[in-house]
Amino acid sequence: MDASGAPGGARLVGLPASVIAAGVRSGQLSAVDVVRAHLVHLADAEPRIGAFRVVRAEAALAEAVAVDAHPRRGTLPLAGVPVAVKDNVAVAGEVATDGCAATSAGPAAADHEVVARLRAAGAVVVGITRVPELCLYAATDGPGTVTRNPWDTARSPAGSSGAPPPRSPRASSRWRTATTAWARCGCPPRRAAW
Questions:
Q1: pTM to 2 decimals?
Q2: Phi, psi (deg, nearest 5) at residue 99
Q3: Region Disordered: what ranges (predicted)?
């Protein structure tokens, strides 16, 4: 097992989502190995970065087992791809706080539509990322934790998502949800088509 947590020396953390999904669809990769490798990396990076409010280790591994056992795994476009969900988007069984410690919300009864679609496509929710209070500010600092920029931990990653983007060094998830007006989904900047 290498530093990424993958058996056989295969480096899984940092692979593009398309490569992970193709590998899991074909059976060359296991969703469980992919998720486990990302969780190992997350356990190492999270104390320095503070990007996740919740890490769903057990639940994510159970979801990965389900992906590997899915009868139509070969058709899942995001098979085994670890994703992070912003703390203002409902994930069944988890509390969405909107970054507010004073929330009285209980666990969500069902997934938000975006999470349901990600899961239906074979993605695995590894955790809930921190957001600034009520998603209003450019820095994510909550009770006991300040989210740090993975490139320079003296700085904020900025934006209402708080969590580092997937292009960060050795990202702990390959995708994350974005809900801001200037939504950053980890895609390279593109020129407008209009």
A1: 0.78
A2: 75, 10
A3: 146-179
Token reading at 102 = 């004073």
d(CA 170, CA 2): 14
DSSP letter for 75, please.
Answer: G
Q: Identify which of 146, 160, 16, 38 has the alpha carbon closest to the alpha carbon of residue 89.
A: 160
Strands 124-129 and 145-146: unpaired
Provide the pLDDT confidence category of residue 160 given band limits of 50, 70 and 90. low
Where are the strands (E) in the chain, listed by range? 52-55, 82-86, 124-129, 141-142, 145-146, 175-176
Residue type, 18: S
Predicted local confidence at residue 167, as pLDDT:
43
User: Sorting pLDDT into bands at 50, 70 and 90, what band is 2?
Assistant: very low
Q: Which domains does the chain have, with CATH numbers?
A: 7-176 (3.90.1300.10)
Amino acid at position 110, single letter: A
Once rounded to an integer, what is the mean pLDDT over residues 33-39?
Answer: 95
Distance, in Å, from the CA atom of 96 to the CA atom of 15, rounded to the nearest integer, reads 29
Longest Cα–Cα distance in the chain:
48
Q: So what's the pLDDT on residue 176?
A: 54
How far, in Å, CA of 172 to CA of 165, rounded? Answer: 10
